[in-house]
Amino acid sequence: MKWVPSKSVPFVIPYYGRWILPTVGQVWPKPQQQTSSETFFVLRPTMFQFQIVGERCDIIDEAVRRYYQLIFYPGAAASAPLAYPPTLSVIQDNPQFRAFLDSVAIDLKQPCEYLPSADMIESYNIKIDTPDNPLKATISSDSVWGILRGLESLSQLVYSSTETGVAYQINATEIVDFPRFSYRGLMMDSARHYMPLKTIKKMTDLMAQNKMNVLHWHLTDDASFPYESTLFPNISRYGSFQPFSHIYTANDVREIIEYARMRGIRVIPEFDSPDHTQSWGRGQPKLLTECYDDNGVLLVPDEYGAIMPTREENYVFLQQFFGEIFNTFPDPFVHLGGDEVSYYCWQRHPEIKAFMAANGWGTDFTKLEQYYFDRLTTATQEITQNQMRYIVWQELLDLNITLPTGTIVEVWKGAKEELNFLDELARITKYGYQTILSSPWYLNYISYGLDWEKYYLAEPLDFDGSDEQKKLVIGGEVVMWSEYVDSVSVIPRTWPRASTVAERLWSDRSVNDTTLAALRLEEHRCRLLKRGFAVDPSNGVNFCEQEWDM
Amino acid sequence: MKWVPSKSVPFVIPYYGRWILPTVGQVWPKPQQQTSSETFFVLRPTMFQFQIVGERCDIIDEAVRRYYQLIFYPGAAASAPLAYPPTLSVIQDNPQFRAFLDSVAIDLKQPCEYLPSADMIESYNIKIDTPDNPLKATISSDSVWGILRGLESLSQLVYSSTETGVAYQINATEIVDFPRFSYRGLMMDSARHYMPLKTIKKMTDLMAQNKMNVLHWHLTDDASFPYESTLFPNISRYGSFQPFSHIYTANDVREIIEYARMRGIRVIPEFDSPDHTQSWGRGQPKLLTECYDDNGVLLVPDEYGAIMPTREENYVFLQQFFGEIFNTFPDPFVHLGGDEVSYYCWQRHPEIKAFMAANGWGTDFTKLEQYYFDRLTTATQEITQNQMRYIVWQELLDLNITLPTGTIVEVWKGAKEELNFLDELARITKYGYQTILSSPWYLNYISYGLDWEKYYLAEPLDFDGSDEQKKLVIGGEVVMWSEYVDSVSVIPRTWPRASTVAERLWSDRSVNDTTLAALRLEEHRCRLLKRGFAVDPSNGVNFCEQEWDM
Predict the structure, then answer these.
(1) Is the N or C terminus of chain B more exposed, i.e. has fewer CB atoms within 10 Å?
(2) Are residues B385 and B454 in the same domain?
């Protein structure tokens, strides 16, 4: 389908009016293959239905309800649609009109999987009035996750036409689509500011509407520990901002996981250790390293370092705690953190000094950190019957720490320096671990003006490396650290910037023309707004048919 | 009153928990004089009333309803209050408890004025259990505007006590308060992005809750002309983004003016000319200067420059148009703009070249701009019987253009360069016009991290100049240009950053300790959030008792 410029502004002159004309009925992220025709169908809300012709399960049943709503009544911000379908006689006069489209077949060819996973298939086909499917529309896939992605694309193909006045119109279209990378994540930080469940759910909806598939939940940090552990409730009792209002109960966590599962999104929790753990200490005495100054004087009260790595009972705690995490979060992957470990308090603690000497490690504290991670991974493998798998921040490799096979390494350095992340990727992939990239996508670092192009153009495979190295890069993720953002602005600060990363990770590598992307992003932004999500404008001076009016 | 740190976090250790402890029951902006005692009163929602003991009018009647609501049921984000008043016996045991406070007297000593104005009095006194007003509370002022400011302060003095468990508590307090500067403005730009009425009203509420008193409404620009003129409806018909949904009717404008009047806020419209007027041209043919290239070839279609200054009928239009504006907006001040005038098309237009030659002006186009403003001000004085008064951007003085006595000049340069604005102020005040400052307060230029201190510390009177020059500085304003912000984020991007400017312009010059301000700003931000406004966090890692959960 050609780009059809909006008719609401007749034409554009320099300096006058909007800067960018949005596309109409284009899919974001751009499908791998798409052919469209100018001929169109009209959808009628009172007649339309999804027909489930293949396998079915709760995920499908929920999804067709959700997408019926998204197509016809897209959200709180939406008021009346442009127009109801015109009478048949009027629309029949239009030479491009094919028919009313009163159903879309959902053809899942294999039984549903229960949980999205690292290996999930997300490919799907859409056929609307193709030669082998005349006057009909079908979404087909071998996987329930593919069906979800196809429903999202279908919902984006439906548009209001200012030309015909039809509120729900769709062009004859064929799509063959699949993701380029299997890991397309978004990291939320609910430790520096508490994020209410409603906010996390909205972020999950937005991820699904951008075909992202991993919610990396940075649950704890120095500032707070909002996760209410069943085995160790004292940690959130003393380590959350407020132990009743600012926590996530086991039930809250289940609610998020189920919400994400319905949308084909994995939830991977991060319990960052051994550092970034100040909030753990108050409710779990003796966990952290007491801190001494250079003269051997104990710093009191409440000066602590990272988790005390030489105290045997700490590994008992960690085993039980991560055992609980493994039972609470169904995905086998847990992010263990491992970033920015300060050795200051380790270096000055008499027990640790004795332990280092006994092992002949001198002053090489990376050996102690290696010891900590060896013990942690051994303990967690034991309690999970070798089922738990790990993601870690890149520091562990920077320090030459060896990690269990199957661990994924997250490259985050170079976040502030231009393109440095390619060198980091080249270096880290040499270790042979699977790798995900977040360096260029630190969306918390805001700046003035049109800023999405740098996120869009960051290409994960642009580094100097062998084919084997490149195959190790399984995707990437947007990160939104929350030191300076809370539930008020986390959505507009993340979106639609994160959409541009979603396209980088889903679409073909050749989809990298920012001028063309801008027109589609403009439509996509207004679409998300219309669906009731407070997403920021992305292309400067412009407007949406329906503005945010809350 | 001493700062009482919040009790919800028992104490703070390095790196752990929130970075800043909010104050409790502190007023923002800080009053000129305040003494408070540790003894307190308890307010009961079912018993409490305002008693109007002096003059009254609709503004007072509306205000006491509004502030009852703000004190006891502060907004959508609020859930249950901390606790209802404890039984009398329990609270009587507290040695600091004085009594239940079941009424506050509103003592307006002079009849209400109808409209807020440049000369309005905003001073007020609050006496709660002072020696001359024992066991009683009174807000008094000579002016209805002072009563409004006093009600705002009173509402901020009421706090929930984690110590006593009382939901609505207020300390014995005496306040003598008045603003340092008479002009404390906020500029909204509804031309680059359309701002729905709801958004403008929320901004107005937030201004009142920060004791700001001028809404400078930048209504039109190159991008769009959303003001629907009664005399010239074609301008918005062809010059707005969308002529039905993206305009302000005369009724919309009245609604905003009335909303602002009730809150003691003036509305000053800006119709920027002769440049920044591309959107005016389509519905008002011949208004703009046709543009020729260097070879005298007319650039077609739709290349225009600023308003054509040598075409007589344009002054007829401008007179009628600004006559309508003067009748629509009750404040005598209108912002005429005058910034960034490009001479490119003027220089190349044959009629203008002939006009310049006939007047012997050579190539000095500032003379033509002077001519334009002479004609514009003469025309508008004529139609308004010399009642209209002007604000202009500083360029006109930079070009040595003479303006009518009583014109106010807005200094905006140095917005991006550090402290340069002081040189601009020193230079501009030498011309003898009253001056307002906005250079350091371009809040649209966002940046990462803790950013409010630079706004807070920008001191308008810190320039080298005589006492006479300093007296000319009557205030300043926050500006929020909307190229990259629309109704989704304009509130969190503006607030509470604008609050820091509000304090700079209201409170004593000596109130400039950012460490102390941070504690009060933290409370103020959570208060605004609790009242239902989506204002951003300002001090990094923290939380509010009631988070934004929409």
Answers:
(1) C
(2) yes
Q: Which residues of B touch A291 (CB under 8 A)?
A: none
CB distance B448–A450 less than 8 Å? no
CATH code, domain with A107: 3.30.379.10
- Whether residues B153 and B199 share a domain: the answer is no
Q: Is residue B148 part of a domain?
A: yes
pLDDT tens, A475-500?
Answer: 999 999 999 999 999 999 999 999 99
Cα distance between the two ends of chain B: 34
* CATH number for the domain harbouring residue B455: 3.20.20.80
* ipTM for this prediction: 0.92
From chain A, the residues in CB contact with B15 under 8 A are: 222-223, 278
| A129, A230: one domain | no
Which of A199-213, A465-479, B297-311, B335-349 bottoms out in mean pLDDT, i.e. has the lowest? Answer: B297-311
Taking an 8 Å cut-off on Cβ atoms, the answer to whether B13 and A302 are in contact is yes
CB contact under 8 A, A241 and B18: yes
Angle between helices A250-262 and A312-328 in degrees, nearest 10 = 50
**Same structural domain for residues A82 and A167?**
yes
- Residue B134: how many other CB atoms lie within 10 Å: 11
Active-site residue, selected from the candidate residues B38, B258, B340, B351: B340
Contact list in B for residue A541 (CB cut-off 8 A) is 192-193, 223, 483
Q: What are the pLDDT digits (tens) for B523-533?
A: 999 999 999 99
Domain tally for chain A? 2
Residue A107: beta bridge partners? A140
Measured CA distances, B265 to A90, A135, B389, B478 (Å): 52, 61, 17, 15
In this structure, are A173 and A190 located in the same domain?
no
Q: Establish, for the pair of chains A and B, how many residue pairs have beta carbons separated by less than 8 Å.
A: 171
pLDDT (tens digit, 9 = 90+) per residue, B312-322? 999 999 999 99
Domain containing B113 equals 33-177
Best residue of A190, A221, A225, A241 to probe chain B, by most B CBs closer than 10 Å = A241
